[in-house]
Amino acid sequence: MTRDSAVAVGLIGIAGLYWLGADQIRVSRLEGIVGAQAVPKNLAVCLAILSALLIAQDLWRARRAAGAVVVEADEVSGSYAHLRALGMLLIGVGYLALVGTIGYVPAVALLVVATALYLGQGLSTRLLVVAACLAVSYYLMFVRFLGIPLPPGIWPGLWRGLAG
Amino acid sequence: MDMFAHAWTALTTTPAAFAAIGGVVWGIIGGALPGISPSITMALLLPFTYGLEPLTAIVLLASTYVGAEYGGSIPAVLIRTPGTNAAAATVIDGYAMQQQGRGGEALGISLISGVTGGLVGLIVLVALTEPLAQVALLFTPMAYFALGILAISVIATLAEGMLVKGLITGVLGLMIAMVGTDPQSGVNRFTFGRPELLGGIEYILVMVGVFAVSELLVQAGLPDWQKPKGDTRVKLPSFRTWRRLWRPQAIGSAIGVFEGCMPGAGGSVAAFMSYNEAKRWSRHPDEFGKGSAEGVAAPEAANNTVACTALVPTLTFGIPGSNSTAVLLGGLLIHGLQPGPLLFEREPEFIYGLYGGLAVANVMQIPLGILIMTPCLWLVSRPKPYLLAGIYALIFSGVYSINHSLLDLWIVLAAGVLGYGLRCLGFPFLPLVLGLILGHMIESSYRRSLVLSGGDHTIFIQDPVSAGLLAAAVLLVLASLARNWYAAQKQRRTLQQEPRPSSGSD
Fold first, then answer.
1. ipTM for the predicted complex
2. Within 13 Å, how many C-alpha atoms sit on residue B447's CB side?
């Protein structure tokens, strides 16, 4: 099974789940002729049909190619690139997991350090200084200048506990 | 005269002029960074526009688009790497000029031609948008539904050889748009009991994720880009030289007008077409590819013209023709501005203020392009890990500033994974963004139409505008299928005609 066909099978599965989810939508007395379920169900059917067309197209292309090597031009390919992307994603996940606890400024500094190290920058004083400067600059820009309350973490509560 | 009065009032009583300047600066910087396209540069700015006045916000975004088109030519000339797709044609002669020690001259020609093209595009934008918006007054709910379907079809068909995939991602975008409270009946759809999802998934989150976060994920696996060597100063061409470049600039502007008004065509198509036509009509075609000033002037005029004329379908019909105008449309909707004829009637100050802001952006590009060269070069020369880390932190900070919700950040990451997945699997993601933005309009128009007809679907055929638009969508899809089939046949014939390798030795 080629990649496109495998993806299309997955999409048919998504279409099925979406249809089931649409079927669960409550029927309201305020609905008009077309209820809240109608368009989602139609979209699920469209997705299933288009996915089936994708499989058909894939099979047709495979028949036409018949033995010739077909190289699919992708923007991103190779397990190395995918692993690198996964690492980058995990850094973002780590930031989201920590920011609520340790607060915005330390979390941003850690994010910058982790990302830079991951992308090949060696650990150095310069890296730590850049991370600290970026974190402070963003804090000043967002919290002080734009007045946006970014997550403070546990520190205010801790400080109050110590002071009180 | 009213128009100038409105524009002057808007520019002098609001921060729009400063937003234009700031947008151009941000756009040049963003465009100069390889891998950071105009749409990503604008998407990064979207969360910051939340607290701004609508005019200031949209002028900021539109000016970013203008600045980014010039910014993309900086690495194209200096390091043979286009900063934006639209600058790919500029590489051909721009880099050749750099190798001849004429890099500053190339940048100067790029700047002046860009400003010329941008002003031409602005004139066309002013001339066309209001009359076209009046055409939209004829639109019924059926016509709006058909227009949404046509828009997604157009974008899907433009993805070469990926029609079915384009339509699939369009449908996926529409499916995401269904999340939230149904506006008609008040029931919840796909909210999974989360109160944060009652208002639906904000398209700004998906846009930032799909454009910016997915790009970060891709860049993580790519080697560092080349750094510019030395310090290049922009050298503006003399008036006589600028006048000699009138032909390629005119060609670029004309093609830019046409391509910009066509949804989906975009700056890169206009740039390459302009390059080819400028070479065809040049008195010195043999100089192209070897450092011809005309080879820089034509594509740069074209892509800056597109930056203005792409607003024509966006403002008149609410149909964005490219990633960048999709972000701009997102900005309009966030600020409660619905494109179409009513926008021109109810918000003339906004429309003429936008024109004024774009005029300021295009004119100010000249001094800003010169002043910002050195800091821009410094920034582009920073190690890629620092740049990407800074952008990553900026994305999270900017998105959090919208609703102060960590769930939004998770949604952005998920959208980034989705965007990365689409790129890996060869699916275009502009139809997804379009489906998400137009989802509510399409659904509400569809349901309203059926209320009017008592449930009879033939109303979409009975309404002449709707029937015409749906027919156009079908024709476009069929034409795309025919084009793909013809291309496959041609490839098969070419393969059959290739000489077979000899099997024996001599």
1. 0.88
2. 20
Q: What's the pLDDT at B504?
A: 42
pLDDT on residue B503:
45
Q: What was the pLDDT predicted at B506?
A: 38
pLDDT of residue B250: 93
Rounded to the nearest angstrom, the minimum Cα separation between B449 and chain A is: 10
Rounded Cα distance, A6 and B77, in Å: 42
User: What's the CA gap between B86 and B66, in Å, rounded?
Assistant: 12
Please name the residues in contact with A68: beta carbons below 8 A apart, sequence gap of 6 or more.
Answer: B495
- The list of chain B residues with pLDDT below 50 reads 502-506
pLDDT digits (tens, 9 = 90+) for A86-102: 999 999 999 999 998 99
> Given an 8 Å threshold on Cβ–Cβ distance, is A50 in contact with B388?
no
CA distances from B219 to A73, B216, B315, B379, B391 (A): 18, 5, 33, 17, 12
Is A2 at the interface with chain B, CB within 8 A?
Answer: no
Dist CA A43 CA A20 (whole Å): 12
Closest CA to B163 of B155, B174, B175: B155
The domain segmentation of chain B, as residue ranges, is: 2-486
User: What pLDDT is attached to residue B217?
Assistant: 93
Point out the residue among A7, A34, A117 whose CB comes nearest to the CB of B425: A7
SS3 B27: helix
Tokens, residue B31? 């465009």
Which 135-154 residues of chain A touch chain B by CB within 8 A? Answer: 135, 138, 142, 146, 148-151
CA trace torsion B45, B50, B53, B57 (10° rounding):
20
A164 burial level (CB within 10 Å; 0-12, 13-18, 19+): exposed
Q: How confident is the model at residue A66 (pLDDT cuts 50, 70, 90)?
A: low
Show residues of chain A in contact with B175, CB under 8 Å: 18, 40, 43-44, 47
B317, B339 Cβ separation under 8 angstroms = yes
Angle at B412 between CA B408 and CA B418, to 5 degrees: 140
Residues of chain B neighbouring A134 (CB-CB closer than 8 A): 389-390, 393
Crossing angle between the packed helical segments B163-177 and B464-497, to the nearest 10 degrees: 140
Are residues A39 and B394, on separate chains, in Cβ contact within 8 Å?
no
Are B424 and A4 in contact, with CB atoms under 8 Å apart? no
- Provide the whole-model pTM: 0.80
CB contact under 8 Å between A26 and B383, yes or no, is no
Confidence of residue A68 (pLDDT cuts 50, 70, 90): low
Distance from CA of A81 to the nearest CA of B (A): 4
Q: Three-state secondary structure along B418-452?
A: HHHHHHHCCCCCHHHHHHHHHHHHHHHHHHHHHHH
For A83, the closest chain B residue by CA position comes to: B221
| Residue whose token pair is 């970060």 | B216
- The DSSP H or E segment spanning B21 is helix B16-32
In chain A, where are the structural domains located?
3-65, 79-163
Amino acid at B409: L
List phi, psi (to 5°) of B161. Answer: 70, 10
Among chain B residues, the shortest Cα distance to A21 is held by B190
Angle of CA points B235, B241, B243, to nearest 5°: 130
